[in-house]
Write a structure and sequence with these properties.
The protein is mainly α. It has a domain at about 80-225: MetI-like (MetI-like fold, Orthogonal Bundle), CATH 1.10.3720.10. The chain has helices at about 15-50, 60-70, 75-105, 110-120, 125-135, 140-165, 170-175, 180-215, 225-235, 240-265. The radius of gyration is 25 Å and the shape is globular.
Length: about 270
């Protein structure tokens, strides 16, 4: 069938479905291109010996080290231990951060009392608490959970507090004028309006949980990804160390993607 010839200066209309599909292909291909460039630069740096012979393994050497660690069960055991610590610490810290964030964001009087304490604690990194928490609770799992929960709590609180405090007062005033009970104002006004901030807080908190995990596992752990990094570093097994670093990065990427996906499904009314 002959194609219609359009007048000069006019373009053929593209169906909306085809435009959407092209955008999906472009958005899916961008991460692959980015990963390919990183691998290429990594390989070039390893081959050039920028830090000395053997100190920067190639991607293939790192993959072989990961395969070896997976075959002997080391990677699985460390991954299981680290996930348990990071997961529990994240759950404790995120739950407390969301609860306190809603309280201080909704109650200015409470915020005036709590915010100075939070501003004092936020500059203190989680790694600085490891010796103190270890002295209090020993080298058991409770100390590690507390270090991770501390880092997550402060970050989540800040995001949630700011999100709740920015909710227009007219929303709550209108609901109160219409006689909406307090529990319905919480579930039908505050929660939906602050939900995007909660999702952002959880995404940021998940990344901090992994950062704090490294600090926690350096405080007397006998298993875990950061513990294995420390052990491999003592023997200069850089290929094993790179495998552990890649594992941490992939964990962070997976956690962020899962929370973002859940946020798009649950907070479907938000465009952010």
């Amino acid at each position: 069938m002959a194609r219609a010839v359009l007048p000069a200066g006019r373009r053929e209309a593209v169906p909306p479905g085809r435009t959407v599909s092209r955008r999906k292909v472009a958005s899916a291909g961008a991460p692959l291109v980015s990963a390919g460039l990183v691998l290429l630069l990594w390989w070039a740096a390893a081959r050039a010996g920028v830090l000395g012979d053997g100190l920067v393994p190639t991607p293939w050497q790192t993959l072989k080290a990961a395969h070896t660690m997976g075959a002997d069960g080391t990677m699985v055991a460390d991954l299981r231990a680290s996930l348990a610590r990071a997961g529990q610490g994240f759950a404790y810290g995120a739950s407390a951060g969301i609860a306190v964030g809603f309280l201080t964001g909704h109650r200015p009087g409470v915020a005036a009392l709590v915010s100075p304490v939070m501003s004092f604690l936020r500059p203190i990194p989680a790694i600085a608490l490891v010796p103190l928490v270890t002295a209090w609770f020993g080298i058991g799992e409770r100390a590690k959970h507390l270090v991770i929960a501390y880092a997550v709590f402060l970050a989540v609180w800040l995001y949630v507090h700011d999100g709740v405090a920015r909710i227009p007062a007219d929303y709550l005033r209108a609901a109160r004028t219409l006689g909406v009970p307090a529990w319905r104002r919480l579930t039908e006004v505050l929660l939906p309006a602050a939900a995007p901030s909660v999702v952002a807080a959880l995404r940021y908190g998940a990344g901090l949980a992994l950062l704090a995990l490294v600090a926690a596992e350096l405080g007397g752990a006998q298993s875990g990804i950061a513990y294995r990094l420390q052990v491999d570093g003592q023997f200069l097994r850089t290929d094993h160390m790179f495998a552990g670093l890649v594992e941490l990065g992939l964990l962070g990427l997976a956690a962020d993607a899962l929370i973002a996906l859940a946020g798009r499904r649950l907070v479907h009314w938000s465009t952010s």
